[in-house]
Known about the structure:
Low-confidence stretches: 1-30, 295-336, 347-351
Strand content: 25-35%
Oligomer: single chain
CATH architecture of the largest domain: Sandwich
Order of helices and strands: HEEEEEEEEEEHEHEEEEEHEHEEEEE
Number of helices: 5
Structural class: alpha+beta
Number of strands: 22
CATH topology of the largest domain: Immunoglobulin-like
Distance between the termini: 67 Å
CATH superfamily of the largest domain: Immunoglobulins
Amino acid sequence: xxxxxxxxxxxxxxxxxxxxxxxxxxxxxxxxxxxxxxxxxxxxxxxxxxxxxxxxxxxxxxxxxxxxxxxxxxxxxxxxxxxxxxxxxxxxxxxxxxxxxxxxxxxxxxxxxxxxxxxxxxxxxxxxxxxxxxxxxxxxxxxxxxxxxxxxxxxxxxxxxxxxxxxxxxxxxxxxxxxxxxxxxxxxxxxxxxxxxxxxxxxxxxxxxxxxxxxxxxxxxxxxxxxxxxxxxxxxxxxxxxxxxxxxxxxxxxxxxxxxxxxxxxxxxxxxxxxxxxxxxxxxxxxxxxxxxxxxxxxxxxxxxxxxxxxxxxxxxxxxxxxxxxxxxxxxxxxxxxxxxxxxxxxxxxxxx
Length: 353
């Protein structure tokens, strides 16, 4: 009997993906009545990379024959992908999240989804759907990763990435292409950047707080300005990357080091040269504050303190300050500076000889 129920649940995978996400609308019409599922107390769940998080889905009653399906809307293409299906007796995992997801199942009404070792790509909208014969109902939740958005370009100057190159460049720096929502949030927190960049859905934008001539003129209001969807192969822009907390510690090595020497100095400490995303993460989450340029393949100067000009984009008064990306992202090997290392162990010393 259990095998028949499980086979019945697998039939759901043959159905076409849902065209949208059911979520509570703002204003009228009123949200549909839920007969079996409890409405979550909070529609947004906050977490950081590397954490374990649970998305709540609790039944108020158990139908005689039912299935619960968890799915995720992918932000890059808005398609819905199945994560896990259960009939209350057995379950099956699907897709790239499969090794890291499980059902909490703290009691027989609990169908909450637990995600271990949260990754950058886990952010987005999730749906818990109860299927009861020909009827179904669902609740939606948003998983929000705390993090930082930063603009990124090549050492050859601005507007050198097509979409796929921008995506790969962010991934190589321990980050990923930001979503539009992440870029918009960064703008509300002070990100002011005049160069247009790709975001995850293939559209191109740039966030402006202080209107100025090179950025569309003085007459335009502040906002996230858009070029819309562009050709992912032919059109070239910069990238807006997103990163979250890192597992480990970023610290500074004093000295006059070229790129090769800085790498060796980090390896001598059992570490490696920090990537751009790791440096931004340390600035965001560990309040890393250092005005000296450091070799990590570029010359970033993280500085979260108010009143300091170096390495910062100056936003409107009262907003958060965001460290500026380096102009040459990849410094030549002959360039001298100090070093930024990333150590995988527990946080400790922030500066070493």
